């Protein structure tokens, strides 16, 4: 990655547009800050104070908090799969402490389709029907498929 970045910089590139991977985002933003090269990305937002990173996708924490508050959810499950979900979860937990919400956090980073089925069966046993799913799109499709297959998309489920 270092070679690619420096070779572009030596050609007179003043801005880079593209996606990033979680394992390289810190190096990329560091290069942009050090070399004063703007990085424009539609990837999910990362916490950075780097003035040379322009994130086109908005952060979702405040919107999620507003929805939970609007519907007056007091007890719910927050399912997440990536480091990105941790920052959202932290904001949800901070708000939960202020508003006396009960949040059950479930990390499904390594969960299989069978694991999703078992998770939703367990949630059914516990009468947990309010669920926030914060996952990458490919994993989300598998989860939504299990929800439909288990008929957990009817009245009373949110």
TrEMBL record:
Transmembrane segments: none
Location within or outside the cell: Membrane
UniProtKB keywords: Membrane, Signal, Transmembrane, Transmembrane helix
KW Membrane (keyword) present: yes
One GO cellular component term noted in the UniProt record for this chain: membrane
Domain of life per record: Eukaryota
Full protein name: Gria1 variant N2
Species the sequence originates in: Mus musculus
Domain Receptor ligand binding region: 2-158
């Amino acid at each position: 990655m270092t070679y690619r970045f420096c070779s572009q910089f030596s050609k007179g590139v003043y801005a880079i547009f593209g996606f990033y991977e979680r394992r390289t985002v810190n190096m990329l933003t560091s290069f942009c800050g050090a070399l004063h090269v703007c990085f424009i990305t539609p990837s999910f937002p990362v916490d950075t104070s780097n003035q040379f990173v322009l994130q086109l996708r908005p952060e979702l924490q405040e919107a999620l908090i507003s929805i939970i508050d609007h519907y007056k959810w007091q007890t719910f499950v927050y399912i997440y799969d990536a480091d990105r979900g941790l920052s959202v979860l932290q904001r949800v937990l901070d708000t939960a402490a202020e508003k006396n919400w009960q949040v059950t956090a479930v990390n499904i980073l390594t969960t299989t389709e069978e694991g999703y089925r078992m998770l939703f069966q367990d949630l059914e046993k516990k009468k947990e029907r309010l669920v926030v799913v914060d996952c990458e799109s490919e994993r989300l499709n598998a989860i939504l498929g299990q929800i439909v297959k288990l008929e957990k998309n009817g009245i009373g489920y949110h």
